[in-house]
Task: structure prediction
Amino acid sequence: MSTPSAAPESDRNQLVSELRWKKFPVLDDGFVCLVDVMGDDSSVVQAARVSYGEGTKRVSDDRTLIRYLLRHRHTTPFEMAEIKFLVRVPMDCWRQWVRHRTANINEYSTRYSLAIDAAQATPEDEWRSQAESNRQGSGGFLPPEIGQQLTQQETELQSQLRTVYQQRIDSGVAREQARKDLPLATYTEAYWKIDLHNLLHFLALRMDSHAQLEIRNYATAIGENIVRPLFPVVWEAFLDYRMQAMFLTRLDCGVIQRLTSSAASAGTSPPFDDASFLAAQDPAWVSLTRSRERDECRIKLERLGLLRPVELLRPVEN
Ligand SMILES: Cc1cc2nc3c(=O)[nH]c(=O)nc-3n(C[C@H](O)[C@H](O)[C@H](O)COP(=O)(O)OP(=O)(O)OC[C@H]3O[C@@H](n4cnc5c(N)ncnc54)[C@H](O)[C@@H]3O)c2cc1C
Result:
């Protein structure tokens, strides 16, 4: 596979003009689109070389430098690039989005204008059950007959709420008050501007399997369609050192050391069974019937091919 490299100026301009205002659809009526971008992969390099001097040119090319910076969490060079988006998002999802304080926002005003006449609707086959092991997450999909009923109920409810809103407006109620009973599924639009460092932080949290599916869809659309082509070298490093990387705690390292050294003495090889894992677990977990940290450690070891999958103990992902 060839490694990504910075595009020549003319290719870059063409890429940006192709991407600008192109709406990438998300959910049933949402989108993300690029409005403006300042900088590219080379802006990160340029900023870093101010700190490290031209000497770095000798020991590391641009790609190596970007990868080093991201791996070692040197954040400020990534703040030198900025991206502005226009997004259309249901309000419940937007409520999670605006928790990311390091962005600049201008949102459509439903005090000033009529609320956007669109609410996110859930298709019959997309109602998710409550996850049993993760209070914040979803489990599998509900059966179709239940989904059908829920979708029908939702359609009626959203239509009724919109009618009541319109009646209030027609009766002369101020827009700022008339909106109070609109559903959280109502779409809003906003300009959202953020630097590359904080955008990657947002993407790392919101593309993660622990994030709610709806915002995950938005983050993935931004990452895959906009950040990846605009910052190919940074994106590659982001996948390698954030999204597809694994964080091992001191306790995890201890488990791995005990597991591998007892396997070496016994002459066994991975993947090990759960009994071996439990024998090597951290002493602090031994007395606990349930331990999220132990379960997380199991999942990491499975990913490393050190442990056989233990289906019953796996937390349900949302
Ligand atoms: C899966 C998931 C579940 C969540 N569940 C909940 C929940 O149940 N309840 C809830 O309230 N929130 C929840 N959140 C929101 C979460 O706690 C954060 O508020 C949100 O993810 C924004 O992260 P951030 O503060 O790191 O990002 P940003 O606000 O973009 O900040 C980026 C970084 O800048 C620094 N920073 C920014 N502002 C300040 C400041 N004022 N002081 C010091 N440092 C600052 C911090 O280092 C921060 O990490 C959840 C988030 C996720 C991803």
Summary: Residues 144-170 form the longest helix (27 residues). The mean pLDDT is 92. The pocket of flavin-adenine dinucleotide is lined by residues 99-102, 198, 201, 205, 210-211 (CB under 6 Å). The CA atoms of residues 43 and 80 lie 6 Å apart.
